[in-house]
Amino acid sequence: MTEPLSAAAAADLSAAGWAPRRQVPEPTAEAIELVCEHVGRHGERHEPFPAAVDALTEFGGLAVSTERAGVAVAPQPFVLDPTLAAATTETLADLGRVLDVRLFPLGLHGEQEAVLAIDERGRVFVLDDTGDWLVGDTIHAALDALLTGRAPVRVRDDGTLDDNTRHDNIRDDNTRHDNTVDDGGR
Predict the structure, then answer these.
(1) Closest CA to 152 of 163, 139, 160
(2) What are the tens digits of pLDDT across the range 48-94?
(3) What is residue 184's DSSP assignment?
(4) Strand, coil or helix: what is 88?
């Protein structure tokens, strides 16, 4: 089944230019091509995969913020533009080795001090100077969490999560959700 966007998150995304079934394939393809041209110091390259292409086709190019207080943490603005995080090849490759998945940059979070990335299973992460964080198991869950201020879950150095109530090891989850909006029963 699907995990819907909350009405609050949908409103914030709409204010940034998003609409259900939004598709921007040409700008997405151009951005992905630019990102893939970047070569890391040790020869690493970003490689696109369906979860990244799908997320960027629907949400790419959006600069999103909210004024509301968060449920657990203060929501921070973010920009879904992978070209802003193209120079993260080594960082994403390192986390990918720990998680045993490929990652692709989605953009920047906060005051551009953190990287948003998606893995090939569709899970979204924030990487900042304090650590690596699982934000959501899907792009929709992650955007909802970012905009409502739900706390992310820290990824330990061995790829497991600090919050054992969600998963013992994030390498084992392959949940996907489609795009619906929860209007709170209205």
Answers:
(1) 163
(2) 999 999 999 999 999 999 888 899 998 999 999 999 999 999 999 99
(3) T
(4) helix
DSSP 114-164: EEEEEETTS-EEEEETTEEEEEESSHHHHHHHHHHTPPPEEEPTTS-BS-T
Separation between Cα atoms, residue 168 and residue 161, nearest integer Å: 7
The string of DSSP codes covering 3-66 is: -PBPHHHHHHHHHTT--TT---HHHHHHHHHHHHH-B-TTS-B----HHHHHHHHHHTT-EE--
The Cα 92–Cα 160 span in angstroms is 17
**Alpha-carbon distance values, 125 to 36, 135, 140, 146, 161 (Å):** 19, 5, 13, 11, 12
The C-alpha atoms of residue 25 and residue 184 are separated, in whole angstroms, by 31
Judged by DSSP in three states, 108 sits in strand
